[in-house]
């Protein structure tokens, strides 16, 4: 699809790298020496959550935040975990997870299916249904990933790529919000996670769809800063879509330029194409409630060349979240008002981390004896 629309780089942000049929080049030959500060995370201590010392009946603040967020623990996630533990006792069965560690399996899954379907049906309010759905997804992924995934890079511990990721500061005039679908939370092939791995959680903030603690925090910032400072990267079919160059005329206060007061908020919807529609609608409903008007959407004009470089196969027709961020930063770099922020270097930092992730995932597949060719794989079985 992208190839058919070379002029307009539509960003859907299928957050997962759906295929590994790419050839991974050495990062040096691909991108040259990195101009950004290569303060490798290898010099920083990597804190892994100590499962054995924790009270496994709930998720504590330290464990929760180690996955890439600064928010308090979502209360409904802990409620779901408590219910799962109670069910274990009631049914005298142990919670087990599938090979991806994100879904329940075995006898316990059968029991839990009945219980969560009944609970879901009992909720009459669609908002409550969504919150329960999200909390349950996240609770299961958290429990299944404990002791299995590295909390920073969301890869299996033996594949941890943290030591190869170089951190970089995002220009203070920019704030990225990763609005992530719960089904993409803790997925090894998610690429949105790279943004806070590189820029830090205060510059690239995770906001989980349906998790009130996250959504409220994000909207509090948006309300404070105003609609003109919030941009959603999404091809809005029902309204005018802006380009990056329009940002200046719509929200950049030239008189205040240089004072460092203006922060542009960019929302990247991090989910599959089908899921992203519901996520986008939820954002717009909230925007209309607050401002009586929808969020402004932008689509990118460039980025196709980058995608050709990274594109694993023809069916990967929409870009991944990290590539969308790279495209955004490169385009902003060419806007005069943003040109001094060194956004190209920040884009290269993400580009570098994406290469590292692709290489780690490929290495994993090869080690596990799985195909890395285009023909031999399906879109959703990367991990
Ligand atoms: Zn790691």
UniProtKB/TrEMBL annotation:
Keywords of this entry: S-adenosyl-L-methionine, Transferase, tRNA processing
Domain DTW intervals: 146-370
GO BP annotations listed: tRNA processing
A GO MF label: tRNA-uridine aminocarboxypropyltransferase activity
E.C. designation(s): 2.5.1.25
Catalytic activity: a uridine in tRNA + S-adenosyl-L-methionine = a 3-[(3S)-3-amino-3-carboxypropyl]uridine in tRNA + S-methyl-5'-thioadenosine + H(+)
SMART domains: DTW
Domain of life: Eukaryota
Pfam families: DTW
Name by which UniProt lists this protein: tRNA-uridine aminocarboxypropyltransferase
Protein species of origin: Dorcoceras hygrometricum
């Amino acid at each position: 699809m992208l190839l058919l629309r070379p002029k307009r780089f539509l960003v859907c942000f299928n957050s997962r790298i759906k295929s590994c049929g790419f050839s991974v080049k050495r990062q040096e030959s691909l991108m040259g020496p990195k101009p950004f500060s290569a303060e490798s995370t290898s010099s920083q201590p990597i804190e892994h959550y100590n499962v054995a010392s924790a009270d496994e009946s709930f998720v504590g603040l330290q464990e929760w935040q180690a996955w890439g967020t600064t928010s308090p623990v979502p209360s409904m996630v802990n409620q779901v975990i408590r219910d799962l533990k109670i069910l274990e006792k009631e049914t005298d069965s142990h919670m087990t997870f599938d090979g991806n560690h994100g879904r329940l399996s075995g006898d316990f899954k059968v029991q839990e299916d009945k219980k969560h379907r009944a609970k879901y049906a009992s909720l009459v309010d669609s908002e409550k249904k969504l919150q329960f759905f999200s909390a349950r997804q996240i609770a299961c992924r958290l429990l299944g990933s404990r002791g299995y995934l590295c909390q920073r890079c969301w890869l299996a511990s033996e594949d941890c790529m943290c030591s190869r990721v170089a951190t970089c500061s995002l220009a203070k005039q920019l704030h990225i919000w990763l609005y992530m679908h719960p089904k993409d939370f803790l997925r090894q092939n998610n690429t949105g996670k790279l943004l806070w791995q590189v820029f830090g959680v205060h510059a690239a903030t995770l906001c989980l769809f349906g998790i009130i603690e996250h959504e409220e925090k994000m909207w509090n910032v948006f309300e404070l800063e105003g609609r003109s400072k919030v941009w959603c990267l999404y091809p809005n079919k029902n309204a005018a879509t802006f380009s990056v160059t329009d940002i200046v005329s719509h929200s950049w206060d030239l008189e205040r330029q240089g004072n460092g007061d203006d922060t542009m908020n960019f929302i990247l919807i991090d989910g599959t194409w089908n899921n992203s529609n519901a996520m986008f609608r939820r954002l717009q409903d909230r925007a209309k409630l607050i401002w009586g008007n929808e969020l402004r959407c932008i689509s990118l004009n460039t980025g196709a060349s980058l995608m050709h470089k990274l594109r694993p196969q023809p069916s990967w027709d929409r870009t991944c979240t990290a590539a969308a961020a790279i495209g955004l930063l490169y385009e902003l770099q060419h806007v005069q008002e943003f040109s001094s922020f060194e956004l190209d270097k920040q884009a290269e930092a993400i580009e570098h981390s994406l290469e590292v992730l692709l290489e780690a995932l490929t290495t994993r597949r090869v080690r596990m004896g799985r195909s890395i060719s285009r023909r031999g794989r399906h879109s959703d079985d990367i991990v």
